[in-house]
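Lab notebook, bench 4. Still working through the backlog of constructs that have no structural model yet. Next entry is a single chain of 133 residues. Request: give me the structure tokens for it.
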Amino acid sequence: MPVDILRPRTWVRYKPSLCRNCFAGCCTLPLRVNSEDLYHMGFLEADEVSGRLEAVADRLKKQGIIRSFNRKTRVFTVRRRGQDCIFLSPERRCLIYERRPFVCRRFPEGGARPGYCPHQKRKQESHGRTMEA
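Model written out:
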């Protein structure tokens, strides 16, 4: 059965070697972060982390960083570019790798299916044809 990003039961058991030549499927999952993550990512000042976040959410929405903010849980959802995280480069590499949020740092330990990932081989363009890497 092929891997379907939206169906975790189709994911494959994770092993580090899968990251080579991967299409970055984990970077197509919704990214939900808290204020500490946003501080680590460089979008909040230290004094904003534990304060009122409504104004922060408004600012980050205007900047195009987040899509939404849940006041009850204090969780932000990062905006996406198409199906990808906004921090994923066209080469499918994380643009903020050293500052990436906790959920990304611990993938695939948590998430929809702990210990599994939506791995698919990266496709490369070659003379107008798509080839597996």
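Notes after review: Residues 8-132 form one domain. The chain has a mean pLDDT of 88. Flag for follow-up if needed.
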